[in-house]
Automatic annotation (TrEMBL):
Protein family (similarity comment): Belongs to the peptidase M67A family. CSN6 subfamily.
GO-annotated molecular function: metallopeptidase activity
Protein name: COP9 signalosome complex subunit 6
GO cellular component, one term: COP9 signalosome
Xref: CDD domains: MPN_CSN6 (cd08063)
Subcellular location field: Cytoplasm; Nucleus
Species of provenance: Adineta ricciae
Tree of life domain: Eukaryota
InterPro entries (alphabetical): EIF3F/CSN6-like_C, JAMM/MPN+_dom, MPN_CSN6
Length: 334
């Protein structure tokens, strides 16, 4: 097997044009943030890029994570092994749902001093799926007025040397993406004086409210226990207020989940949701059938108007007239 060498990334004019959807950037950022929170350490993440290939133009639309053979040592080795069986199966399932999406490359989250040897190992493993896969790198610590996204085209020079040519890209959005980005931008803007966003502030407020409710409920619980043990005097008005408050709280039993009232209400709600989903499917199927019938009627009317005595209507391919009842039908309808 020939030995492959890797050159540092260079900036040049690539042979492809690239369009990038914001969903790709949001997925990569979410993947990195989730892994960073779960592992509490800086680590690299990798995943596949999905897009539409039209000649020399590539439109990146979505991503999904790679399943690595050994995640624990993935960031300390000079190469990373991808579970190709999982990747192939995943691409087959995606192809069934989205036949217009193809595997276009992979992404990583690394700084400007990224490891090109690991990227070469990725290229060697993914070349069977795409002979010239793209590399999309998100710089988590880069400071710039532009998006910290860098796209590279992989080119094999003389069969042994892998060059990563940085190419430019353009951002394109759809209506649903614009709504989502506007929502994220609206609730993630800081006031310039703190490092927390509006979303973090709202979550903190909800957390404090739930914690305060829990503490107050513990106080009421101790009060009821003290009355039951005869340590405090009974106050019927206060007990009625406590009973009214308890009736407002969820009736789920968190210990064994055997509360019969909760199970009945939950089953009813689940059945209602399933029924609504079934009705929606039935409505969609009826609408599809209605469209088919309308199109069939249009084609039938056109053939009826265009056919006359001695015409093709009512005759088979061998000139045989096809008759049913008192009406004539084309051979294809019989």
């Amino acid at each position: 097997m020939a030995t492959t060498t890797t050159s540092a990334a260079t900036t040049g004019k690539g042979s492809v044009t690239l369009s990038l959807h914001p969903l790709v950037i949001m997925n990569i950022a979410e993947h990195y943030t989730r892994v960073r929170v779960q592992t509490t350490r800086t680590t690299s993440v990798y995943g596949a890029l999905l897009g539409k290939i039209k000649g020399r133009h590539i439109e990146l639309c979505n991503t999904f994570e790679f399943k690595l053979a050994d995640v624990s040592t993935a960031t300390t080795r000079a190469s990373v092994t991808i579970d190709m069986e999982f990747l192939t199966k995943k691409l087959e399932l995606i192809k069934q749902v989205h036949p217009d999406l193809d595997f276009t490359g992979w992404y990583t989250v690394e700084g400007k001093d990224w490891n090109s040897s690991i990227m070469s190992s990725f290229y060697s493993q993914l070349a069977s799926l795409n002979e010239s896969p793209l590399l999309l790198r998100l710089d988590p610590i880069g400071v710039s007025n532009e998006l910290p996204i860098h796209a590279y085209e992989t080119i094999v020079d003389l069969g042994t040397k892998i060059d990563f040519i940085e190419i430019s890209y353009t951002l394109i959005t759809e209506e649903a993406e614009r709504i989502g980005i506007d929502h994220v931008a609206r609730y993630s803007v800081t006031d310039g004086t703190s490092d927390t966003s509006i979303v973090s502030d709202q979550i903190a407020i909800q957390y404090n409210a739930i914690r305060l409710l829990y503490q107050r409920m513990l106080v009421l619980l101790e009060y009821v226990r003290a009355i039951k043990q005869g340590q405090l005097e009974r106050n019927d008005d206060l007990l009625r207020e406590i009973a009214s408050l308890c009736q407002r709280l969820p009736i789920i039993n968190t210990d064994d989940n055997t509360n019969q009232t909760f199970r009945e209400d939950f089953d009813i709600q689940q059945s209602d949701v399933a029924l609504l989903a079934l009705l929606a499917c039935c409505t969609q199927e009826i609408s599809t059938l209605n469209d088919y019938l309308n199109k069939f009627q249009v084609v039938h009317d056109k053939q009826q108007h265009s056919s006359g005595p001695g015409g093709s209507f009512g005759y088979g391919s061998g000139g045989r007239r096809m008759v049913r009842g008192g009406a004539y039908f084309p051979a294809s309808f019989v």
